[in-house]
Amino acid sequence: MGRNPIYTRVYNQLKYQILSGELPIGSHLPPERKLATRLGVSRNTVVRAYAELESEGFIAGRMGSGRRVEALPPAPLLTRVNWNSQSSYNHLASSPSHMAELLSITDAYPDTINFAHGDGGKHTLSSSCFPDYVKAAAEKVQSYFFTAVHGLPLLREQLVEWMGMEQISSPEQVCVTSGSQEGLYLITSILAKPGDCIVTEMPTYFGSLQLFASLGIQIIPVPLDQDGMRMDVLEGILARSHPRFIYTVPTFHNPTGRTLSFVRRKQLLALSERYGIPIVEDDAYRHLHLDAEPPSPLNSMDQSGHVIYLNTFSKILFPGLRTGWIAGNQQFIQLITRLKELSISTNTLGQIALASFLKNGELAPHLATARNLYREQAQLMESQLAPLRSLGIQYEKAAGGLYFWIALPEELNPRELMHTCMKSGVSFTCGDMFLVREAEQPYIRLCYTHEGAERIEQGMSILTHVLRKQKEAFS
Fold this sequence. Notes:
Shape: globular
Number of strands: 15
Largest sheet: 8 strands, mixed
Number of domains: 3
Number of helices: 20
Strand content: 5-15%
Radius of gyration: 23 Å
Strand order of the largest sheet: 4-11-10-9-8-5-6-7
Helix content: 40-55%
């Protein structure tokens, strides 16, 4: 960052604060002279940074009231293509494609030590005994034909029992989806239309950001602290704006690993009820606690029917299953099912295998085994991270989920570090993937569960070497 013009550094700092929600939508920016004095730069530097932010739509000036942070327009991603216009293809090609980039890592670098993919890794497959259930399902004729649009009845029954929530008491309150990504698409398509706003904590799961952008949804970010999404900022946003829903990953949040406290869960539910705004609770990491169990799901605390519950087997079992589910009040699930008809059904063979797996009580012991393994992997990676504190990195002890969220020293460029490490045999994700726009920011995300112990040590050794080398270049 030290090599950039001064105005660029001011611009990047303000842009990141806006994208992360630290400067909330509608908040006033300081007058040019005041900010220049605070930052120790010239007024012209601030003027130029403000002008660039204004030209990109992040801020707007109003006569007599100064500049304010604007609602973020959807990032240009999957817009309608003009078949005869070459510029349309150039536009699409220049847009970030984080999901494709992430999933292609092992194809482009088949031997890479993979700290990028967020899953439990191949080493959990044999201990799960799940392949036996797939083989058994493959012997059943019905596995090769359609089942109910909203999911195999036996699987929905088992999901109701597994969730154990008073609010979800019937299989008719559950719709099985092709992963949580399809579930979020269905929910968003019903609750919002292009141009509408939604609220989410920031940073957040990049797949949700790409999905919202593709549907033309504006995103209002809310920052997190140690206790999760900040309710003081959220309340101010809800009082001024009219978002269609609040999307949150409240438990072992991706990418930060933080968990919304019990007190804030109650506050969030109260705000939802007061303003009549539904909450979409993405609960993919709930059962991956390393020590103490997390607070209860928002849905199980909900007394007003405002929470729509979303989960997936991708994190607690295997991502290739592409099976998730939505749970909520029966009327809403009926709407989801009607929209789900457009994709006809979800993989029948996988649903039959999962239903038997759950019915035979196999999921709980699998999770117990996986948590023990993940705890060891997290401790091993942390033992390699701890010495790097002397270089200026910061991180929080993992309490659950799959990730370490690492703050780098200010002078290091996360994308340069990521690309150099990838060439050296280690892959991970860069922090700006979890923002609405690409931006200079100081974070990387490391998954500690995908690789076994030996490769964790090898990968961390490479990362340490590259990080030290880049740090020395600035000394």
